């Protein structure tokens, strides 16, 4: 069965599997045939889909996470969130691209390679895009956007930080991270573009579960009559 994030990620042009094929750009390699960790390769990886992956991280937070009840879309109207996402986009993309290249050399065990990719995508990628985890001083007491039902004014929304998602159980027979730089579908073959369960998809799926299960919100404001009011909510991802 496809992971929950599969359909969402299909909307982003991630074509890492085309690198070093007739349909993609050629990767710079050393004399042993391993990809070089250089600016050109990082750029190729970003162009082939890493920037799209970071865009998906941003869109997941800005467009797909709401709180229910009472249904106030707490992320979308915060200029500080959008500004922060713009600031971190390039560093996150470079980090992920560098990690994929470094772990496509065949020098690491499969377990270590997958653990490194998990760390690059989840703690250093997805979690940085979640407001409470990204920068508590900026995001953990944020001005309200659209007031929830019953509020005349939403003064603030406090967001708890979900714990780091548990790394999903992964197959131990992924082969040859060197062939296309990284192979990220369920069978380890870089030519599959529609694998129902992908490494990246599983990472997103575990992140979504953690956000929905463990993220609490606390709205404070006033009623139309001016009486102080509070309301709690839980995050939900609408995909």
Write the element-wise H/E pattern from the N-terminal end onward.
Answer: HHEHHHHEHEE
Shape: elongated
How much is the radius of gyration in Å?
Answer: 20 Å
Mean of residue pLDDT?
A: 79
- The total domain count is 1
The biggest sheet amounts to: 4 strands, antiparallel
What is the β-strand count? 4
Please identify the structural class as seen in this structure: alpha+beta
Proportion of beta-strand residues = 5-15%
Unreliable segments of 5+ consecutive residues: 172-196
Distance separating the two termini: 16 Å
Number of helices: 7
Question: How do the strands line up in the largest sheet?
Answer: 1-4-3-2
Portion of residues within helices:
40-55%
Layout of SSEs?
Elements: H1 6-9, H2 39-64, E1 65-68, H3 79-102, H4 110-129, H5 131-134, H6 136-139, E2 153-159, H7 199-214, E3 216-222, E4 228-237
Antiparallel strand pairs: 1-4, 2-3, 3-4
Helix pairs in contact: 2-3, 3-4, 4-7
